[in-house]
């Protein structure tokens, strides 16, 4: 399959643990602590590697926590390409409260990044042989809103397919001025983009509108328990969710995008890619904390979904 390059401008060290009860002012004793390399593009790369793809992960990292991030990336099976910045890499924290089953997620804003610090990463995009470039995650403070649009333009100049998963003003700026191959907003992110709430018909219409005006070749909208829809020139493909026990919602969107990109890069049809993505998203919620999806769960759920579809 074609090699894939992921880009993470705002990576994180994801720490996850469990506590019996989370209470204010009291010391909360935790257990089952784990540390994972995180941030959208790194998570996407982890999923692609887990499924058997060839992937390289470019990311910005700085400070003592940046060195720890490098150590966490090393054993994942992905080739890491860190680019140094002055600020310290952020640390995010997830706590599962055993007594209630609730999950508390604390997400740091991260360091400010300058355009000078970004330039080596853009230089990699200009010379990479990867035919697939995935930019996933938030835009750091200090970088201009058109940063992802610049990446999309560089990818287009090299004949590479650019995949984007971001939100807010950075997403809007990219779709307003550049063309991407695939964009993956959640329903909430799409509602923020259009400026009003959307029912499922509205989701379909908004996604198709992006395709028709040339902002994206494909738009995959995740609907949580409602599954996902994929808009393209061929129309709308709708895949329902796979209902599984939920342990943690962390990483479900990144697992979805990683599996979908993996399948598309392997020349699978968009419909097959969407079904694999749904299976990966469901597999991710089976695992605790920041574990992401497991290969055996993804393949099992994909096979079960195919069997149900055939029987139906």
CATH level-3 fold name: UDP-N-acetylmuramoyl-L-alanine:D-glutamate ligase
How many strands, what sense, and barrel or not for the largest sheet? 9 strands, mixed
* Helical amount: 25-40%
What spatial form do the alpha-carbon principal axes imply? globular
Rg over CA atoms, rounded to whole Å, is 19 Å
What is the element string, with H for helices and E for strands? Answer: EEEHEHEEEHEHEHEHHEEEHHH
Mean pLDDT, nearest integer? 93
| CATH class assignment | Alpha Beta
Structural class: alpha/beta
Strand order of the largest sheet: 5-4-1-8-9-10-11-12-13
- How many domain modules? 1
Give the distance, in angstroms, between the N- and C-terminal Cα atoms: 32 Å
Specify the CATH homologous superfamily.
Ribokinase
Tell me the strand percentage band: 25-35%
- Annotated CATH architecture: 3-Layer(aba) Sandwich
Total beta-strand segments: 13
Number of helices: 10
Q: What are the segments in which pLDDT stays under 50 over at least 5 consecutive residues?
A: none
Task: Explain how this protein is built.
The chain is of the alpha/beta class and 312 residues long. It has a single domain (4-311), classed as UDP-N-acetylmuramoyl-L-alanine:D-glutamate ligase (3-Layer(aba) Sandwich), CATH 3.40.1190. It has ten helices and 13 strands. It has helices at 40-50, 63-73, 115-127, 147-157, 168-177, 187-194, 200-212, 252-265, 270-285, 295-311, and strands spanning 4-8, 12-19, 30-38, 55-61, 79-84, 90-97, 103-106, 132-136, 161-165, 180-183, 216-222, 228-232, 235-239. The strands form two sheets. The chain has a nine-stranded mixed β-sheet, sandwiched between helices. The model has no long low-confidence stretch (mean pLDDT 93).
